[in-house]
Amino acid sequence: MSSSASDAVSLQGASNFRDVGGYATQDGQRVKRGRVFRSDHLAGLTPGDLQQLRNWGVTHSLDFRGAAECAATPYAIDGVQRVALTIEPSVIAKMQALVARGIEPSTEDTVELMCGTYRDFVNHNASTFGRFLKHLLEAPTPQVFHCTAGKDRTGFAAALLLSALGVDRATIEHDYLLTNQLYRRDPNVEGKGPAHVMQVLWGVQPAFLHAAMEAVDQQHGGMQAYLHGAIGLSTQDVADLRSLMLERV
Fold first, then answer.
1. Residue 147 annotated in active site
2. Which one in 25, 40, 131, 245 has a CA-CA gap of 20 to 30 Å to 106?
3. Which of the following is catalytic: 36, 136, 144, 147?
4. CATH number, domain containing residue 55
């Protein structure tokens, strides 16, 4: 695997920002750099960061955040069209509801809630993730996709994209876990809660991604069947995506 935390793109006003490219596929190709980027929210970008996006030719930001998140950290970038791919962050609401009732979830409870969120991505948000992949085809120019922290909705979206491109799961998990090195936690975004709960909510663990992949395998017949089924990509869509985003090594 060729990408690492050291390959992350340094932007002053964003964290967890990186090029999805650079990874080898199982058939000996490589994901092109400079095509698709992932990030946390883009509301804090500096003038220098905005110039960097212009230099890369980024034309669209694909935003997985919910309504309250967008209202709390809005942004508008000249020359970049924001596309709403709304997935509401249900796990935070569930945690807050428990705490309001005087119930303090354990670390294990919190991990299981996060695993449930990832199963929901697979089973309840497939059409939105399908729109994400189709948008990459419809606007074949450099794009950035993000949520609030760039770790869960964004992490699963990256896993789907890399899967469609033929990257193996160990490499996909490596990319996913880079969040723990690259995301800068922000109390203004996170809200308040028990420290052990927040530690789980604002990091990533292999168990989260495994829960999603197990749902793909056990309930949808594997990744290829999932991409062509619930996600809604045709065989030609996948071929076109690979043509757009892969290069011979």
1. yes
2. 40
3. 147
4. 3.90.190.10
User: Do 62 and 145 form a contact (C-beta atoms < 8 A)?
Assistant: yes
pLDDT digits (tens, 9 = 90+) for 119-162: 999 999 999 999 999 999 999 999 999 999 999 999 999 999 99
Tokens 């809660």 correspond to 193
Q: What is the pTM of this model?
A: 0.95
Give yes or no for residue 57 having a pLDDT over 70: yes
> What are the pLDDT digits (tens) for 173-215?
999 999 999 999 887 788 777 889 889 999 999 999 999 999 9
From CA 65, how far away is CA 181, in angstroms rounded?
22
**Domain count for the chain:** 1
- The DSSP output letter for 36 is E
CB count within 10 Å of CB 147 equals: 26
List b or e across 61-99, with b for residues whose CB sees 16 or more CB atoms inside 10 angstroms. Answer: bbbbbbeebbeebeeebeebeebebebebebbeebeebe
